[in-house]
Design a protein that fits this description.
Structural class: mainly alpha
Largest sheet: none
Distance between the termini: 25 Å
Number of domains: 2
Number of strands: 0
Amino acid sequence: MTTVLTAFHTLREILRVVLLWAAVIMAAIAVVDWLVRTRRVSPFSPVARFFRQSVDPLLEPVERRVVRAGGLPASAPWWALAAIVIVGILLLALIDFLGGLLTDVTLGVSQGPGGILRLVLYWAFMLLRIAIIVRVISSWLPMGPYSPWVRWSFTLSEPILKPLRRVIPPIRSIDITPIVAFFGLTILESLIRQWLG
């Protein structure tokens, strides 16, 4: 199992360097493209010709999406840079999550049935807290509770929040039961873990 964890760590480091260099290169492309489009660099210079022949065809799919969304074609490199950064952050977070999951499973299995029970409890409480966070964030967006993206969070959190709403009134039309439930779950998990030893 240690070799798998080492491989995860190595993969993360390689991916981090690759994504960093991809972002740096895309930022340089965006700056040069901006310089050419604003005529700070002559559009007839070798740099501008190289960009028109080599780089612009690569950015054409991004440019089409930006234009369809109502943006300016000149902003396509900046959107590509933003996409690289966001995808990079999400990918690294996913690898960290999977590495942590693998570490938790290894640690739980090595501690026997008690370790597996603690691991399952940790995952259950974490899932409930994530459901509450997703539910709160989705309430800020134009998204209904029956949307396939958030329905699971309503299904998991409603049995916890409904009894709390009967006891805790809203404060100036703000429902604070998700906050109470989130911290209540954290305290309950801590008490159960102490009881299990």
